[in-house]
Amino acid sequence: MEAAAMTSVMEEPIEGRQYEDQLRVMLLPDDTSSSGSEGLYLFIGLNILCFFRKTSDMLIEETTSLVEDGHAWRKYGQKMVLNAKHPRNYYRCTHKFDQGCQATKQVERM
DNA sequence: CTGATTTGACCTCT
DNA sequence: AGAGGTCAAATCAG
User: Mean pLDDT score of chain A, rounded to an integer?
Assistant: First the structure.
């Protein structure tokens, strides 16, 4: 992740912005939020990059989270999490084993 | 038929 | 014991 590509850093996504030029959103390791449902997200767009902290009442929209990211995701679980209005879906790589892909991701949606 | 999804049960951690 | 994460059998879809 080259820092030279960074054109914008902000605390929160721009409200109402259409993120149709997005490439991906990834949840970063964040030891400051090891407890609770919050997480630090990195948003990478064609000409924008920002970090934002997800709060419990913030929705990571489906179009944002399920954007094509080069992996084939297979859903393996869904849970209702406490203090969240919406269920959380769990995904992992389709070829987790024969390609050594250990990636998993969690998506909250409406 | 084969691979993906659904969904309740099960496991781990606190 | 409760909450979050994963498993796996049943079911669905191509």
Answer: 51
